[in-house]
Amino acid sequence: MAKKTAPAKDGGKKNFEERLERLEALGEQIRKTDIPLDEALKAFEEGIRLARGLENDLEKIENRIEILMNSADAPVSESPELELFDDGE
What we know:
Blueprint: H1 16-31, H2 37-69
């Protein structure tokens, strides 16, 4: 039987910071030279899933910020600075 885990207090989904910390821990785990290949592969797969989810979350946050900065309530004389979200292009 599959082992059930207790849902997190936020509805079963960890917050951004917790997932980022987990991704960093997985990266450290994979860098170890004594880790068995199958464990490294599992950690890599989990890391890819986490990275994709975090990237999606950042895109949603960026879109929300752009909407807020371009809303009718924003002062017209100020232009939004979103360089934090520029992808270097």
